[in-house]
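thread: overnight batch results

M.L. [08:02]
morning all. the overnight job finished for the chain we discussed friday. pasting input first so we're all looking at the same thing
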Amino acid sequence: MKVTIERAALLRALGHVHRVVERRTTIPILANVLIEAHNSALTLKATDLDLEISETTPAEVDQAGATTLPAHTLYDIVRKLPEGAQVSLDMTGETGQMTLRSGRSRFNLQSLPESDFPEVTSGDFSHKFILSPADLKRLIGKTQFAISSEETRYYLNGIYIHAIELDGRWMLRAVATDGHRLARLELPAPEGCLGMPGVILPRKAVTEIQRLIEDAQGEVIIELSTNKMRFSLGDALLTTKLIDGTFPDYARVIPTGNDKILTVDRQIFEKAVDRVSTISSERGRAVKLSLTDAKLMLSVTNPDQGSAVEELEADYNGAPLDIGFNARYLLDITQQLDSDTALFRLADPGSPTLIQDRDGAAALYVLMPMRV
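M.L. [08:03]
and the structure it wrote out:
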């Protein structure tokens, strides 16, 4: 195998694939990236057995071939080479080493045979559809913050994606919840996703997709089956196993009878919550909302540090109400809203609250209250 490639192209591809590789692994081949040179291109591939990312980039191939090299070491070497450099990869003879040259630099890297590299992308996909990068970014970006990190409830450690019919129209819906808050976003269903199985996309795959979207050109092709999902984002291909579990009936926790309506300027509210929560305890993080006609009072009491109060103008149409929320969760939700105003639908101090940009908005959030 003998190939020459621009440092920028190699770094970009390595930057996308090397993040999948765990820093500590008991299986040596999983610490490596698979490198395949063929047809004027270099393909890099990495996996942790649950997630696989590959990327193909143009290169000058003098001799086709394949091998595997330590992923993080290779990335660090290429990252430290000067901008504009040319990189040559040469593996000749039976030494089991790859020689990397660039300018006056030369590295001999120990390789492992490509035949040891695992294949996790095999299998058929039952459904295929297309989304724009902007739609995919919105679908997962508006919901991923609510993914649970509690490993015992593994079925909440991802985003539940499914197609649903509403008033005669099919929608593609994404839902995430950690039991304290819930995020739901829907888009008009693209052709090909009707009848798809409901799938749970794992957190690590969500994170990598968000990074790949930033550099994606053109439309994103999505393929899925009951246990795998594949995303084609330009030159990059991400394949992930799905979480094998049943997502809970989230519709049961979305309130429908909340009749107390609060409308407030989103940015003013967000900054006020951030200010008063400065004094809250790290453990509790509770902020109390006291609602009366045309007035909203935010307050925090911390026995160890003191108290904070801020008064805001707001539109409110219900009976006086005191309700508490986790300040961090409240900020996470308001930061996802797109409009200048935030709409809260409340019931009582012990019931979940509905938060949206406006009635009928594509994104909907549910927040459980706290005792204050």
